Amino acid sequence: MSESPSAVTAPSGAEPLYRWSPVHEGETAPLVLLLGATGYVGGRLLPRLLNAGYRVRVLTRRPERARDFAVSDVVEAVTGDAADADAVRRAMDGVRYVYHLVHSMTDRRDFQRLDRVIARNVAGAAAAAGVRRLVYLGGLSPRSGPLSAHLASRREVGEILERSGVPVLVFQAGVVIGSGSASFEMIRHLTEVLPVMTAPRWVRNHIQPIAIRDVLHYLLYALELGDDVSGVFDIGGPDVLRYDEMMNGYARLAGLPRRRIWALPVLTPRLASHWVGLVTPVPSNLARPLVESLQHDCVMHDHRVDDFIATPPGGLIPYDEALRLALGRIEVDQVETSWVDAAVAQAPSDALPSDPEWAGRVVYTDERAIETTASPEALWRVITGIGGENGWYSTPLLWALRGWGDRMFGGVGLKRGRRSRSSLRVGDVIDFWRVEVCEPGRLLRLRAEMRLPGLAWLDLSCETNTRTRYRQRAIFFPRGLSGRLYWLAVLPFHGLVFSGMARRIVAIAEGEDGGALGPASRHRSGEQ
Question: Per-residue confidence of the chain (528 residues) as pLDDT tens digits?
Fold first, then answer.
């Protein structure tokens, strides 16, 4: 019988394996520029760099997300976009080491141009600033033959960085397994939902997965190498498996029957990505580059990295153990980062004005307010427990239909869930919303990321005077005639959905204060 996931101790930034003393005694700690700090890998690398004794600077379009880092008081944030050469030059001032962890994981037609622009900005600014080392994380790919557009773009980025004249380490990794990784979520949901499936031929290709913990090991030790070490290095875990074997490895660990998988030659990457988008939380626009990369054998071609970086104590993590670690993090609600962290749909200029009625444009609102006997603390716990496993506290069928409709039109749908059941931070995803403002005890503002003919927000707030008051406000900025017609079409459903949600939130909060366990309480207490 396999070990229970809840018994697994998963990695964290404070784990002894990653807690090193500063390696540069007698001088100011070196400054590291981390590009992609709000992404899946970058968000995990940041605390480990600090534990290793480095100072860290991040470049971000949304400084409020940087402020929400658990270690924000010791992280310097520069506001800007990596596609802006001036912003990159500002961020590069005084930097010794640079991590380039920015990828355009979308199906937009211009993603290759954007990757190229960012790579040239980073290469030029690093050379001008006298940076000692660039570290880039790319993808495993065949040495010859045609590549998918995304793998070709990653290879091109590495080549641009290598031509900068700065010592460069390009790590090429295959499928990354960790709690919250897109590859892990694809395997997990495909396996859990479909006991029998037809699949593209790539399920027979060979994959060399690597645990996120081992990826971080290589990235961290890259800064300890001499300036004479440079080039492209493959990294991977100890197992080489077919993709269908990886799925059945998950089924075995999760106690599920063996999955029957038939490979068909007719499923194109586009069709397969839409299929993945319907079955898993990973939307088709992100699934497509992942699917395209699996059309090739993703295995290490050489092990030269072992000549320069020692494997972690205990060796590289086998695939089954990587799955156990990922499930363990989910079980104890300690998912550090998720694949959804980097996918911001709107630019900062789309932030909701504090007074939308004064914004000089058409605005529709739906407002609800209820006084309650619940304590402010209980009400806030229920507010911040919304979404994911707890749902939206009213008419689950209507919410599910809205999610399916969004998926059918290429949106993110309702399956993304939450990074954590018990905590929220700016930038977190809650199903098809994203946290834009989180003022503890007072205001939770969610920005809609579903497909809409306009912009939408949902404010959930807790007010206190002589009594506790719950206030809820939906805001919609319509785009053209279609936006106005959309609002009129959904208005009858709002009366049912939003009024029920407000009443239920208040009732659960009052039940908590009275000793009853609502859905949010059960999840927090661990009762399933």
Answer: 333 333 334 444 444 444 444 455 556 789 999 999 888 899 889 988 988 889 999 998 876 665 555 555 678 889 898 999 999 999 999 999 999 998 876 545 677 888 999 999 999 999 999 999 999 999 888 777 777 778 888 899 999 999 999 999 999 998 899 988 888 888 888 888 778 777 777 778 888 999 999 999 999 999 989 888 999 999 999 999 988 888 899 999 888 888 887 777 665 666 666 666 667 767 666 667 677 777 778 889 899 999 999 988 889 999 999 999 888 888 777 778 877 766 544 444 455 655 555 555 678 889 999 999 999 999 999 999 998 888 898 888 888 888 878 777 777 777 778 888 878 888 888 888 888 888 899 999 999 888 888 889 999 999 987 889 999 999 898 887 888 888 988 888 888 889 999 999 999 999 876 544 444 433 333 322
DSSP string, 8-31: PPPP-TT-GGG----SSTTSPPPE
Domains of the chain (ranges; CATH) run 5-341 (3.40.50.720), 344-525 (3.30.530.20)
C-alpha to C-alpha distances, 95 to 58, 89, 130, 132, nearest whole angstrom:
11, 10, 8, 8
- Tokens representing 301 are 């071609």
Q: What gap in Å lies between CA 294 and CA 297, rounded to an integer?
A: 7
Q: In degrees rounded to 5, what are phi and psi of residue 463? A: -115, 145
Residue type, 441: G
Contact in structure between 92 and 131 (CB atoms under 8 Å): yes
Task: Return the SS3 of 349.
Answer: helix
* DSSP structural state of residue 412: -
DSSP string of 134-176?
Answer: EEEEEE---SSS---HHHHHHHHHHHHHHTTSS-EEEEEE--E
- The pTM (predicted TM-score) of the whole model is 0.73
Q: Report residue 85 as tokens.
A: 């050469």
CA-CA distance, 371 to 501, in Å (whole number)? 14
β-partners of residue 60 are: 79
- E strand map for 29-102: 31-35, 55-60, 75-79, 97-100
